[in-house]
């Protein structure tokens, strides 16, 4: 299940891509299959091992183009173990809402991107997420849970505050919003029949991709898509006027309040 549109990310073979907070690797897999040199990063040991195992299986099955590479590492998004201006694309999917100092994480993304590089950021959409929080504290108030709900304008402002230029955006996964509303309504840990039935629908949709559900989700995404996705660019380096001219002064990284 992909949240990022790889055409809007403008991912091309040979590019170096960081998948930050990769989880079990869903976005890393697609980038690898498209010929990128992928580095998947997560703090969790089990997530790292699962992603590494599946990327190895993709390589073993010959599903990745010749020249594509992968690496999976444990890392902290506030202190990424990569040099300045070293990666072409970054994916940060459903991770910033977990980080108290999200602006510092955005500044790290800006730092590692090459001039002209692009990041795809996805977060839970405000409306569907607010319903989940209203229905259940257990949904978000736990160790490693969601610490904020983003409005689209707030996310764009914070990305801009570190020097990134937010551009196109869209919503995704409308069919998943009611699933989480149901889980929150009956109890996140309860194995309710209605939740199991809806989950079977989602699995059927993911595995068969039928026209009916694909069309329904495309129409419903603008109304209550579960995720908000925005693409932001690191500005290209300004050309030097002459050999003696100095470059522009680095932009100050404005810190904004993490709480809303």
Automatic annotation (TrEMBL):
Q: Which GO terms describe its biological process?
A: methylation
Keywords associated with the record: Methyltransferase, Transferase
Which EC numbers characterise this protein's activity in its record? 2.1.1.-
Q: Which Pfam families match?
A: Methyltransf_11
Ranges for domain Methyltransferase type come to: 18-120
Q: List, alphabetically, the SUPFAM superfamilies matched.
A: S-adenosyl-L-methionine-dependent methyltransferases (SSF53335)
Listed GO MF terms: methyltransferase activity
Q: Which InterPro entries match?
A: Erg6_SMT_methyltransf (IPR050447), Methyltransf_11 (IPR013216), SAM-dependent_MTases_sf (IPR029063)
Spans of biased composition, class Basic and acidic residues?
A: 251-260
Chain positions covered by the region annotation Disordered = 238-260
Keyword check for Cytoplasm, yes or no: no
Q: Is Nucleotide-binding among this UniProt entry's keywords?
A: no
Q: What is this protein called?
A: Class I SAM-dependent methyltransferase
């Amino acid at each position: 299940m992909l949240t990022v549109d790889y055409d809007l990310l403008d991912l091309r073979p040979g590019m170096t891509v960081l998948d930050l907070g990769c989880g079990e690797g869903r976005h890393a897999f697609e980038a690898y299959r498209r010929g990128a040199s992928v580095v998947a990063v997560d703090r969790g040991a089990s997530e790292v091992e699962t992603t590494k195992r599946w990327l190895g299986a993709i390589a073993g099955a010959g599903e990745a183009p010749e020249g594509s590479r992968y690496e999976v590492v444990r890392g902290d998004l506030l202190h990424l173990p990569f040099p300045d201006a070293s990666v072409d694309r970054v994916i940060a999917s459903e991770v910033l809402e977990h980080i108290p100092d999200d602006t510092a994480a955005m500044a790290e993304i800006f730092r590692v991107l090459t001039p002209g590089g692009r990041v795809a950021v996805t977060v839970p959409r405000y409306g569907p997420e607010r319903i989940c929080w209203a229905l259940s504290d257990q949904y978000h108030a736990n160790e490693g849970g969601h610490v904020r709900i983003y409005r689209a304008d707030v996310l764009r402002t914070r990305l801009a505050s570190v020097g990134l230029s937010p551009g196109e955006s869209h919503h995704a996964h409308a069919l998943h919003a009611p699933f989480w509303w149901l889980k929150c309504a009956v109890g996140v840990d309860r194995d309710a029949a209605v939740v199991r039935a809806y989950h079977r629908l989602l699995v059927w949709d993911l595995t068969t991709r039928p026209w009916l559900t694909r069309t329904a989700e495309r129409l419903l995404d603008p109304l209550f898509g579960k995720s908000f996705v925005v693409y932001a660019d690191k500005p290209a380096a300004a050309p030097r006027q002459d050999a003696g001219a100095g470059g522009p002064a680095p932009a100050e990284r404005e810190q904004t309040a993490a709480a809303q």
